[in-house]
Every structure is written in C-alpha cells, then in structure tokens.
C-alpha cells in the first residue's frame, strides 16, 4: 500500500519514497559532482566563468586558510554578500572546513547584524566591502575574530575586475569608508590558502551545516539548524523532481537572480544546481532590470527561479519580449504567493510553465511543488516531494479530512531538528510533525492549497517581515508611546509595512520617524505608510489588536 494513499496522480517518473540518499555529507556530494563535471562551467558572473574543478580548488584553498587561523569543525562563519563568484567559493570552502554557515543579508542594519552574529556566535565574517562600514560598527559587541573583505570585481578576469572595483568605489561612491585594521582581502585569503595544507574533517549526517535565520512561527528571530542530512536529502528530493526535464547528455543552465543568502536560491540553485552539474548564471543585482534582461539575452536558459515580483517585473520590461525562450524548460516561483495573472502571462509569453512550490527555511526549504510535467495546478502549492509527508492538523494536532482548513504540517528528512539554542516547544506536534504556521487545505487528489498565511507575517517580495521586529524598532524612538505594524497590499512587492503610532511627544513627524526606521531596519522592512492615532485597539488585557487594524484597512 502507498505510504501516501491520498495521492491519486503522483507525477509520472517520480518516486514517492526518497530512497538511498547515497552521501553522508555535503562534502561527499561536492566531490562526486566535481569528479563527474570537472571541466564544465559551474558559475558565470559578469562574463567570467569558473569550472567545477576551479571552484573546488579555490574552495579547498579557502578551507585551508580557515583551518590555518584556527577555525575548527562546528565554528560559525557568516557570509554577507550578493550573488558573486566569491559566494560559492566561500560557501563550499566553509563547508569543506566543517564550519556552520550563517547566511546574512548584506543589507542588514548594524542592529540586525549584531543580533544575528551574537545569537549564532559567529567568529568569522566574509563581507562585501560595500557593507563593511556597518560591520565595523557591530564588531566590538560580537565574538568575531576574523574579517575577510571582498570587492565586487575581485574574481572578474583581466583588467575588467580592477576597473569595476575602481568605478564602484571611486566613481559611484558605493563603498562607505570603513576601518577594520585586522581585515584580510578575499584574494589574499585564496593566495595564502594555496600554500596551506587542507585537512578534511570528519563530518556526520547530523552535524549542522547552516544556521538559516528566520522569523520562525512566533516572530522571534531564530536560527534554523539545518544538518548535512537535511541538505543532502533535500538535494536528492529536488533531483527526483527535476529528472523528467533534465537531459543526461546536455548541461542545463539555471539563472540565479534571488540572492543565495535566501534559502530558496541557496538550496535549489546553489546546492542542487551544482550537484546536477548545471551552469549557474549569477545575477548580482536583479533590481537593475535592464541589466538583468541584457544578461538573459546572452544565455540559453533552461531554468529560471524567482519570486512573483521578479517575474512580474521582467515581463513589464520592454526588452523582455525580444528574449529567446526556446531553451527554457520551466520557471519556478517560491518565497511568496504566485499570482495567477503573472503565471498565465508568463506562460503565454514564454510558452513554458511558471509553477509554484512551497517551503520554509526550517525545511531546507522545499516541502511541496507543482509537477513539472505539465500537470501543475494554478493556485496550489502542488504535492509533497519524495519522502515528505504533509497533512492538515487542528490546534490539538488531530488530522483533518480533505477539504477542511487547518494548519499545514509536515515531516521528512529535510525538516530541521530545531532552532539554535532554543527548545522545540510549540514548533512540533507529537511524532515530529513540524508546524508551518500556514493555514491550508488538502484537495481530494493530494494537492495542497494555502488559504491564509501565518497570522501576522508580512510578505515583502518574498521576504518575511514580522511585526514584532518593526514595532521593537519604532517604539525605541523617544517620541513614540505605542505602535502596531501590519501588512497592507502593495502593487510591486505584494505587501508593504504600515505602522500605526501613538505619540508621546506631539512634535514627532512622519519624516522624523521614517528616518529613524531607515537607520535601524533593512529597506524592505521600513514602513511605507505611517499613520498617527490617539489610541490603538486593545483587548481586555491590554494587548494591541493588529487584527482590528487590518480589518479596518481592508474595509477602506
């Protein structure tokens, strides 16, 4: 009998069970890939390419340097940069050294960086020079001992790289002045590492490899502990899902526009794409839509991943209609809800499907995805990947029948063990069912549909913003008495943040409060709307009722 009896139409050619995952850790998986695809192009960025052999060799140099300065298995290293060739080298080098990688958004404010670095116990940071000034501010309050600084053009060949660095720093003034005397350049690290001896650490399946920070289901910033087993299993699951589309004799090209510090791009594009031997085109700044479209015109893309707003933005660019999509097989949307009109327009324009998947940082991330064989169902998050169980449970953890709304819960080899330095209370039901916090239904043939998101989460272009975090910043302003934050619709980013503020000093202005937010929050978390009120709705115990504010906004 099938382990998943409710699936009547499981995708052809895809197993229900995961089967043998073959590798004990990611290092074994990387070695397998390099042995099979050594001289193929692994990554391309700004016209410069690195083969699988070159990436592996540079990663070993990076790992050897880290070991030479005393980094040991289990130590935490933060990588804080956009999509550049330096990223996979630092990523795979850290993994080869047995370290735990803490992916950090380079746009974080010093306040946000300090929390993540202190909570995780990071001792080494790899940072793009453009963001080193913020790092300088928080260093005294952290345990960071080693700082590695890179510049955008460091690995771009010939004269082009130095010219790029000069323009970025001197002409465009994109590198604020900073002073970190102990910092070492990325290029020097690779040079010094090439002279050191690399020692492969003993890594077990249950050893952590990532602390992927997320708001979790309670709104408190926490690090999801993802093990080698989690990531290897997830890679094999995605490999099964893509098998019907992949050609064994042809190298596929995957486009990575989502930054790889985001779990979707990290695990699907970065790790799975590498494992499968794909050519990975790294887009450093997808907000430069003209530049992005120009780069796509040079590539024969097989797979494009992104969020709803990215696909919508691409289609609204004048150059999009002139692109050649003859090699495109499928596009995958994640990170936020895929709007039906975007999916339809994409399919009409490219003659290929744009399908939606679903997952969380805590689940490595993919739990379910629409089939890639043409049987995808618009408006759903598809069916569970191989070896994954999903169900709808009520508040007590009881299973609900198909068609009834409840919390989407899941278990599988890609689900984290728990949050870093925190207990599992409230995160899992009995028998290890992970509580996603998303409300949904299961349809009669096993497709899942989300009907509501986590109670108060705000989704800005695929990034989760939790009201507590915004409120904690706003209320720090000396002229603010009370604050409540909610998400309101936004035409470009799905949602944006709106705050309702009760003043403690009537001289407070919207402009003053906005400047304060910009200094303490990453751009996408900064409120787009500020409304001053005399009082906020509260429960009988004094709790501010965001729900009432949201209902009032919806009624407008």
Descriptive labels:
556 residues, GMP Synthetase, Chain A, domain 3, nine-stranded mixed beta sheet, five-stranded parallel beta sheet, globular, 2 domains, Rossmann fold, 15 helices, alpha/beta
Helices and strands, with pairings:
Elements: H1 26-37, E1 41-45, E2 48-51, H2 52-68, E3 76-80, H3 86-96, E4 100-103, H4 110-120, E5 124-128, H5 132-138, E6 146-150, H6 160-171, E7 184-185, H7 186-193, E8 208-214, E9 222-227, H8 228-242, E10 253-256, H9 263-275, E11 279-282, H10 289-296, E12 303-306, H11 308-315, E13 330-333, H12 340-350, E14 354-359, E15 366-369, E16 383-384, E17 389-393, E18 406-411, E19 428-429, E20 433-442, E21 448-452, E22 458-460, E23 463-465, H13 467-474, E24 480-490, E25 494-503, H14 510-520, E26 529-532, H15 546-555
Helix pairs in contact: 2-3, 2-7, 4-5, 8-9, 11-12
Description:
The strands form six sheets. Strands 2-1-11-10-12-13-14-15-16 form a nine-stranded mixed β-sheet. A five-stranded parallel β-sheet has the order 4-3-5-6-7. With 556 residues, it is of the alpha/beta class. The chain has 15 helices and 26 strands. The termini are far apart. The chain is globular. The chain has two domains: 26-357, Rossmann fold (3-Layer(aba) Sandwich), CATH 3.40.50; 458-555, ANL, C-terminal domain (GMP Synthetase, Chain A, domain 3), CATH 3.30.300. Helix content is 29%, strand content 23%. Strand 8 (208-214) and strand 9 form a beta hairpin.
């Amino acid at each position: 009998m099938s382990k998943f009896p409710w699936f009547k139409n499981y995708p052809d050619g895809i197993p229900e069970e995961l089967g043998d995952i073959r590798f004990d850790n990611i290092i074994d998986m990387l070695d397998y890939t390099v042995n099979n695809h050594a001289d193929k192009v692994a990554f391309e960025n700004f016209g410069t390419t690195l083969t699988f052999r070159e990436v592996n060799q540079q990663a070993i140099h990076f790992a050897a340097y880290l070991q030479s300065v005393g980094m040991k298995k289990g130590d935490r290293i933060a990588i804080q940069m956009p999509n550049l060739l330096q990223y996979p080298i630092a990523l795979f080098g850290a993994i080869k050294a047995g370290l735990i990688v803490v992916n950090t958004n380079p746009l974080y404010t010093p306040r946000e960086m300090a929390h993540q670095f202190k909570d995780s116990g990071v001792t080494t940071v790899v940072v793009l020079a453009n963001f080193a000034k913020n790092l300088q501010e928080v260093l005294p309050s952290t345990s960071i001992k080693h700082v590695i600084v890179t510049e955008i053009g460091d690995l771009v060949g010939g004269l082009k790289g130095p010219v790029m660095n000069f323009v970025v720093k001197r002409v465009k003034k994109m590198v604020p002045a900073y002073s970190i005397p102990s910092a070492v350049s990325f290029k020097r690290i690779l040079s010094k590492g090439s002279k050191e001896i690399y020692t492969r650490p003993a890594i077990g399946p249950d050893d952590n490899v990532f602390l992927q920070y997320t708001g979790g289901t309670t709104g408190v910033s926490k690090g999801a502990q993802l093990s080698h087993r989690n990531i290897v299993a997830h890679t094999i699951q995605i490999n099964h899902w893509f098998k019907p589309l992949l050609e064994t004799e042809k190298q596929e090209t995957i486009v990575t526009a989502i930054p790889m510090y985001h779990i979707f791009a990290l695990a699907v594009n970065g790790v799975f794409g590498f494992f499968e031997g794909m050519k990975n085109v790294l887009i450093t700044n997808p907000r430069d839509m003209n530049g992005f479209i120009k780069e796509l015109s040079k590539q024969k893309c097989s797979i494009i991943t992104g969020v709803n707003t990215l696909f919508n933005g691409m289609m609204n660019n004048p150059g999009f209609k002139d692109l050649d999509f003859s090699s495109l097989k499928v596009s995958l949307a994640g990170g936020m809800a895929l709007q039906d009109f975007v999916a339809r327009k994409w399919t009409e324009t490219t003659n290929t499907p744009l399908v939606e998947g679903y997952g969380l940082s805590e689940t490595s991330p993919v739990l379910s995805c629409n089939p890639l064989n043409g049987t995808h169902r618009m408006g759903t998050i598809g069916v569970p990947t191989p070896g994954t169980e999903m169900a709808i449970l009520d508040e007590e953890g009881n299973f609900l029948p198909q068609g009834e709304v409840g919390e989407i819960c899941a278990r599988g080899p890609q689900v984290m063990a728990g949050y870093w330095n925190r207990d599992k209370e409230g995160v899992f039901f009995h028998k290890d069912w992970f509580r996603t916090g998303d409300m949904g239904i299961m349809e009669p043939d096993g497709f899942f549909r989300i009907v509501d998101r986590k109670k108060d989460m705000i989704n800005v272009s695929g990034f989760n913003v939790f009201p507590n975090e915004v409120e904690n910043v706003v209320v720090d302003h000396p002229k603010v008495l009370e604050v409540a934050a909610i998400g309101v619709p936004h035409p470009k980013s799905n949602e944006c943040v709106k705050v309702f503020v009760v003043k403690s000093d009537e001289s407070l202005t919207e402009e003053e409060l906005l400047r304060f937010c910009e200094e303490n929050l990453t751009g996408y978390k900064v409120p787009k709307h500020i409304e001053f009120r005399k009082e906020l709705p509260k429960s009988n115990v004094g709790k501010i009722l965001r729900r009432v504010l949201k209902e009032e906004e919806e009624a407008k």
